[in-house]
Write a structure and sequence with these properties.
Number of helices: 29
Strand order of the largest sheet: 6-7-11-10
Largest sheet: 4 strands, mixed
Shape: globular
Helix content: 55-70%
Number of strands: 11
Radius of gyration: 26 Å
Distance between the termini: 30 Å
Structural class: mainly alpha
């Protein structure tokens, strides 16, 4: 057993195999759950029912858009809103019992009170509605608008759910007590699983970041809290993580489809937008093929390659393909709530773009007229602002990206007061959470022009966008001039997160800005889908040759927009298949010992660990794999230096002084381990402190530094 893993920077390449723990060639998942997940299922169902009632208030019960089946709005809205409300309720109650009540098992009280409270609310609402209406149905979804389309949509989302579920379990599953995590994703799973386990196996209140224990939490952690709570309720960790991830991504795609249908009025555009969402645009595949044709080894390379291809900075990390939604599971949940907000505020945008004025006069009236500012639905804006603000610690990037798009909507909309109220409420709740969880500032915004483009000039950025995304972004800039006012306003608004990514830096790691580009990309697929469908259908009055040429152009456009992403997907399958999975023993004696012996305030010094039997214990590491904490905003240089001192000093006085100063209560030593490329030594540690644990193979020893 080697507990050392390598950096996230290399987790997409074959070099990951060098230091990965034992690998087992397994391609299928099987397991016996036999009722283990029942309490977790009850939790999710209760959240959905609670969310359904709240969503009716948010979206307007009985309100519908012509030709759109409301069920695909209500299902994801119910899941998203209900999960937000119930999970925050459980967290706050658990926090209170842990911090104020000093309870050793705060989850017990949090779940009992939270789930009971939600049940009581549902009972009271049902009684009230029964008395008022004479009947009551929890899932009182409005009449279907298009029954023929509904059958096709059921098939579409059914297949989509099966596909996404398969992919989630393909890259992350447990079999026979062993956790398997694919090589293209495990680097991100390391901090996520550690956070999950800090809740399910520990008592992480007030919440800390497991890879930088003993300090505040700067990372959005509520999605991991939810999955940790579901594991606490009896749902196995892979089930908890994958079920919530599937519901989040499918829910987001339902709303993306609804948004596409509302913008274009065509089901084919909605379906094609989902296709383009999975398979990205880019020039990488074309260049890759050309290079290997010249080298004469194209077929061999295509068959053997298991690494993402790319010719722009860090493109081979998988920054732009579907892999993002497999390793950043909480992004989909954030986008679900953002898309819900965009769908609702379409009412405001459509009202603003429907006026008959033209040009400058129309723009002037949107800014200076009473109608441009007068509130249209203040209650809806308040509720949406609260729900969006509550997402700040689920996925902060999604909230920022959503607010940027809504800012674009506001420019062209009537009812700007509602936008201001929604944004103000959202920012207030985000600020409140930051003040509660974070010491100091949550972010340090600064101007950073050009994102990852090597040449940061305007021509350099254009060249970068071309090689990174092909015609996707550059083509849309041209397409906007051929659109009507409503569609033009929506497209321009969808571009705001991309612009943001190339202008501002919010965290120490500029790579993080790729999320804003992915957010824009997801929504902009609607317009490329519209363009393709329009070319395929043609216009009235066109000749047969013109229609044929339109169809050929549509096919060429689809291929150019998706072939790089299709190859990326093949790499995802091969790169996470048998023999290419990191494994962790979930029944390890080391994990069990740490769970049983470490208290909530204990701080464990380890080598630079990523995802292993130690992190699965829920323990707080003094300084785990530095990249995770550094990218979240922690000063890892300081702690790394202190860790090196502890592991390498021959002076017991220096050792004890440093350990006491840093409040480290346990030191773990592993044979052959390093910290910052310096060999860890045990002699001084062993002479100064009591050894309290040793693995059966003698490779790992733990020393207690306190009486």
């Amino acid at each position: 057993m080697n507990l050392l893993l390598i950096s996230r920077d290399f987790c997409y390449t074959d070099t990951c195999l060098i230091k990965s723990p034992g690998r087992i060639e397994v391609s299928a998942w099987r397991g016996n759950v036999q009722g283990e997940i029942m309490l977790g299922i009850i939790y999710l169902l209760l959240a959905g029912m609670l969310g359904c009632e709240a969503s009716k208030m948010l979206t307007g019960e009985g309100k519908s858009v012509s030709g759109i089946n409301r069920i695909w709005l209500m299902l994801p809205a119910s899941f998203g809103v209900g999960t937000l409300l119930l999970t925050w309720m459980v967290y706050i109650i658990s926090w209170f019992f842990s911090v104020v009540g000093k309870a050793e098992n705060p989850f017990l009280y949090g779940n009992i009170i939270g789930m009971t409270g939600a049940t009581v609310i549902m009972i009271l609402l049902s009684v009230q509605k029964y008395r008022k209406q004479g009947s009551y149905r929890i899932w009182n979804i409005d009449k279907t608008q298009d029954k023929r389309r509904l059958k096709k949509e059921i098939l579409l989302f059914g297949l989509l759910t099966v596909f996404i579920t398969y992919m989630m379990f393909y890259v992350f599953y447990i079999k026979d007590g062993i956790l398997y995590s694919g090589l293209t994703v495990y680097g991100d799973y390391a901090p996520h699983t550690a956070m999950m386990r800090s809740f399910s196996a520990g008592n992480n209140f007030p919440t800390q970041y497991p890879h930088y224990g003993g300090a505040d939490v700067k990372y959005h952690f509520m999605f991991q809290f939810l999955t940790g709570n579901l594991e606490y309720l009896g749902m196995r960790m892979d089930f908890a993580y994958n079920i919530v991830s599937t519901l989040s991504l499918v829910g987001f795609l339902m709303l993306l489809y609804q948004l596409a249908l509302r913008i274009t009025g065509k089901m084919c555009c909605g379906v094609l937008a989902l296709f383009l969402f999975f398979f990205r645009s880019g020039m990488a595949f074309f260049r890759f093929v050309w290079e290997h044709i010249q080298a004469g080894n194209l077929v061999e390379t295509l068959e053997e390659n298991t690494s993402f291809i790319g010719y722009t900075v860090n493109e081979n990390w998988g920054l732009w393909n579907f892999n993002v939604y497999l390793n950043q599971r909480h992004l989909a949940f954030g986008l679900l709530m953002v898309t819900l907000a965009l769908y609702l505020f379409m009412d405001w945008l459509e009202a603003g773009t429907a006026h008959e004025e033209k040009g400058i006069l129309w723009i002037k009236n949107r800014i200076f007229s009473k109608e441009g500012w007068k509130s249209r639905n203040l209650d809806q804006a308040l509720l949406m602002g609260m729900f969006l603000g509550l997402c700040a610690f689920w996925n902060g990037a999604a909230v920022i990206g959503g607010l940027l798009i809504l800012c674009g909507f506001a420019i062209f909309s009537d009812g700007k007061v509602d936008y201001a109220v929604m944004a103000g409420v959202s920012i207030f709740f985000s600020w409140l959470q930051s003040k509660i969880f974070i010491v100091g500032s949550a972010m340090s915004p600064q101007i950073y022009l050009g994102f990852l483009a090597e040449d940061k000039t305007v021509p350099g950025v254009v060249k970068y966008l071309f090689w990174m995304s092909g015609v996707f972004f550059l083509g849309l800039v041209l397409m906007v001039w051929f659109m009507r006012r409503r569609e033009r306003a929506i497209l321009v608004s969808f571009l705001f997160p991309v612009i943001f990514a190339f202008v501002l830096l919010m965290t120490p790691d500029i790579n993080v800005n790729h999320k804003y580009i992915m957010i824009s990309y997801a929504f902009l697929t609607i317009f490329w889908a519209w363009a393709v469908c329009s070319l395929w259908k043609g216009r009235n009055g066109q000749s047969g040759i013109q229609k044929t040429m339109g169809k050929i152009l549509a096919i060429v456009l689809v291929i150019s927009l998706s072939v790089t992403g299709i190859y990326d997907f093949v790499v995802i399958i091969k790169g996470n298949g048998p023999g290419r999975r990191v494994t962790v023993n979930m029944n390890s004696e080391l994990t069990q010992w740490l769970e049983e012996n470490l208290e909530k305030n204990d701080l464990l010094l380890t080598p630079e660990y990523s995802m292993n039997e130690v992190t699965m214990s829920g323990a707080m590491l003094y300084c785990g794999w530095p990249y995770y904490a550094w990218s979240a905003g922690y000063d890892t240089n300081y702690r790394a230096a202190q860790a090196v001192t502890i592991y390498t000093t021959s002076d017991s006085g220096t050792l004890k002084k440093t350990v006491q100063q840093e409040k480290i209560t346990y030191i773990l030593f592993e044979e052959g381990s390093e910290f910052e490329q310096q060999e860890c030594r045990e002699e001084t540690i062993a002479a100064a402190y009591e050894k309290v644990y040793e693995t059966q193979d003698g490779r790992i020893r733990i020393y207690k530094t306190t009486e």
